[in-house]
Specification:
The chain has 245 residues and is α/β, with parallel strands linked by helices. Helix content is 29%, strand content 35%. Helix 6 links the parallel strand 4 and strand 5. Bound molecules: S-adenosylmethionine (SAM). The site of S-adenosylmethionine has 17 residues, from helix 4.
Length: 245
């Protein structure tokens, strides 16, 4: 079950406003072009920003996400029609034959156990063509992003078009290495409704990621920076093995 921030209908409708400008996505469009990917699978596509951008630049795109409310937001956007939207996780599209699977927005950190992560790598492998690429980002643990989150107590209040003024507060509720938990509280100031969303993210270091990818049958081609967040992210560019691997 995805976190309320993605799965609650009222929160999904304000997600993009609080997420802010998506300066991260151009790099992924560039990578899809660099890899000459025709068919792209966006795993954990959320409210669909990257999937729609990729479709608008000529890629055939399938977006999967377990959060129906986020997919409803995605489907309602201009440019959403050419994308195939599927509710589920990566295991929903075996045999898709994708040239490229992407996971942006640090989706990789929602997979808390080694088993969850290994199963996700296997499911993505099954959705890729032989030698297809898997590109994802995850926060560098050594950057200790949660310390900034804990220091930044907000609140942030936005006037969200069509939704009115909404206040967001975030507190870090626990750091139990390698997991960090936090809670968002949203107050819809027009009617006073308060909705909370709890999340726990798993941090993995580079060695751990490389070992898990090798065990899952992926070759690491490169580990890059996210150009909009220098020093903060690993961006893994990987290639699935041949058929039957
Ligand atoms: C931070 S959002 C990122 C969304 C999108 N990739 C983006 O960049 O805007 C994380 C997304 O991961 C999704 N998610 C949660 N569990 C998942 C799973 N098991 N498989 C795939 N996606 C999942 C959530 O529903 C949510 O949409």
């Amino acid at each position: 079950m995805p976190d309320a921030i993605f799965a609650d209908a009222r929160l999904a409708l304000i997600y993009d406003a609080f997420d802010g400008p998506r300066d991260d996505l151009a790099a992924y469009v560039g990578i899809a072009r660099e890899l000459s990917a025709g068919r792209v699978l966006d795993v954990g596509c959320g409210t669909g920003n990257l999937a729609i951008l990729l479709a608008s630049t000529g890629h055939t795109v399938v977006g999967v996400d377990p959060a129906a409310a986020s997919l409803d937001v995605a489907r309602s956007k201009d440019g959403a029609a050419p994308v195939t939207w599927i509710q589920g996780d990566a295991s929903a599209v075996p045999g898709l034959g994708a040239d490229l699977a992407v996971m942006t927005g640090n989706v990789a950190q929602v997979f808390r156990t080694d088993t969850d992560w290994a199963q996700t790598l296997a499911a993505i492998g099954a959705a890729l063509r032989p030698h297809g690429h898997f590109v994802f980002e995850t926060r560098r643990p050594e950057r200790r992003a949660w310390e900034e989150w804990a220091a930044d107590t907000g609140p942030v209040t936005l006037n969200v078009p069509g939704r009115g003024r909404v206040e967001q507060r975030r507190v870090v509720t626990s750091v139990s290495w390698p997991e960090v938990s936090f809670r968002y509280t949203y107050t819809f100031l027009a009617d006073g409704e308060v909705i909370t969303s709890d999340s726990t993210l798993r941090f993995r270091d580079r060695d751990e990621l490389e070992a898990s990818l090798a065990a899952g049958g992926y070759r690491v081609l490169d580990v890059r920076e996210a150009p909009d967040r220098p020093g903060r992210e690993f961006v893994f560019i990987t290639e699935r093995g041949p058929a039957g691997s």
